[in-house]
Amino acid sequence: ARGAPVRDSAGKIVEYIGLYEDVEDYYAAREELRRKTHELGERVKEMRCLHAVDLACNRDETPVEEILSGVALVLASAMMHPEAAGCIVEWNGETFRSPFHREPTIRITASLDVDGAAPGRVSIGYGGRRGEYAFLPEEEQLLSTAASLVAKMLARRRDRDRLESQSQELWRRQAMFEQTERLAKVGGWEYDIATSTMTWSEEVRRIAGIGADSHSAADQHASAAAFLREPLETALRSREPFDLELPWLLPSGTRKWLHAVGQVQIVDCAPARIFGIVKDITEEREARSRMWRLANHDALTGLPNRRCFGARLEALLAESGGADALLLIDLDHFKDVNDTLGHDVGDALLHAVAERLSEAAGDSDMVARLGGDEFAVLTRVPDPSSAREWAARLLADLRRPMPVAGQVSSVRFSAGLAIAPRDGSSAAEILKNADIALYSGKLRGRNALVNYAPHMRDSMERRVAVCSEVRSGLERGEFLPFYQPKVALRTGEIMGFEALLRWNHPSGMRAPGAFMPAFEDHEIALNLGKLMLSRIVSDMQIWRGSGLAYGHVALNTSAAEFTGFDLAEHVLDLLSAAGLPAESLGIEVTESVLLGRDAESISPTLRRLHAAGIRIALDDFGTGYASLTHLQQYPVDIIKIDQSFIRKISTDSGSQAITCAVLGLGRSLGMTVIAEGIETPEQAALLTAAGCDGGQG
Prior knowledge:
The protein is about 45% helix and about 25% strand. It is of the alpha+beta class. The chain has an 8-stranded mixed β-barrel with strand order 19-20-22-23-24-25-26-27, surrounded by 4 helices. Strands 8-7-11-10-9 form a 5-stranded antiparallel beta sheet, with helices on both faces. Strand 15 (about 400-405) and strand 16 form a beta hairpin. The radius of gyration is 57 Å and the shape is elongated. The protein starts with a strand and ends with a strand. The model is unreliable at about 215-220 (pLDDT under 50).
């Protein structure tokens, strides 16, 4: 309602004039305008919030929790109660929350839709009493819009993380591949046939020494042509892969060996490209070369070994036109050098011999160390007759004094010479025959050069057969002692016995003369000696237990029992274990044993046995070279006159004179003299008359 007063001329209000107007529609319109204006403001705020959320979602560095704080305030109802509002996002098994979020008592939720799938949801809620807050109807659509922004953000970040992870994995694998290439010294390459372009990996560039500025197709092709031209052309023609080892010279002048492998790729029935690898095998080839040298050369002397020498010998024998001379050389008594002076001196001696032999042989001959102290020299000679002259000249050079370990030494050698094809047509045969000749030289007293002859093989084969048979006989226990009595010639009483070795062979009883070559084998001779001693001690123990008077039993010894074996300790231990006195045993030693190279080790053994009460007899007296010296040097109790003198004592004045001289010598030295091989009463009578103490036969 509106009105105005009416006044007279004097200014006095005389009446009011007014009107009433219906303003209900006006106020309704005004209220609607205010409400619309407020809603527009709220939408602007929402849009600003959505814009802020959108901006935050597009900044990868913004934490998800910070973005969710903005999402929680997108809704108008949330803006009215910001302190209680919070946002929760569940995404692919993970949950994200806005800061200071409390569990809501009321919430509104929208799905997170990515690429048509709904891998999660977003919720906005309030943490107050139920019914205290209410959501506006249109807020659900607004939340869906915000959820779409969040979903896109999370999907983008997921894809970014995946891409980063894949990039890191790709980088790791690339780094591992490059490192593997460097460690394995292997690189890859590719040749494009259409463009004639060669592409190298960095490792190939490093291996082949290709400069980093060689990026042009022409430079790369030129590098490839220098190394792979021929293999590439062959592969293009044949369409087959290649696998080659090729030499390569670096710009620095260093020579390398490269292993190149290539494969042709066929596209539409035509070669499109060739790809492959290049590997630096320089060290590998050097290692193979070192291994080959180690396998084919002697580590001490650097000479070819038996394997390499055998291959060379086979190759030489396969060639025609000429005679090939093989000389095997063995150092005499080399074991003594190692045993007395030490292995270092022995090694120095072998090295000096190898140098002297190589110098004497010259470049045309092949010198090898076959093992131990055995050397071989191989040469081609004009004819067989000149071979021995060549070998003698070589040995003469070797026998000249040579410096060894600070001293000048003269070395003795045994050598065997075989000539192909006369003495054998194969490497194995010629080596065996030269070895047989060498062994024959050792049997002749060493320090000799012996040419192979066919009869030597027969002797060697007999020796090998006899040794094998004796070993079998030892295993079967076929060897036993036979006891020959020693009789006092004046009284006829038994003084004692000599144990004679016999072999109870399946074909009949055999004396040592039937298997004498076996005694040249140290192991067999030692085992036979041990067996005889054990049997003798066992028999004496039985006789003693039975009350039989047997005097003493003499055992024949060989050189093997004085070498590398403590005979005195072994004998005394057996006697002690059996409860037998030392005086019940005698030891007989031949002059050939005393003259051997182990004479220095024999004297202490005999003196120890003699000191214990064991009588020592010098057997086969008169057949050696230093009998009188032996009687002074060794503790001899008994002299035994060899049967070769007794056999002719009745008819030969010389044998009679020698026998009488020995008997006189024995009496003068206070030694017992026993004659061996008495076969007739006449011989016994003559010896008794001459004053011989005892006899056996």
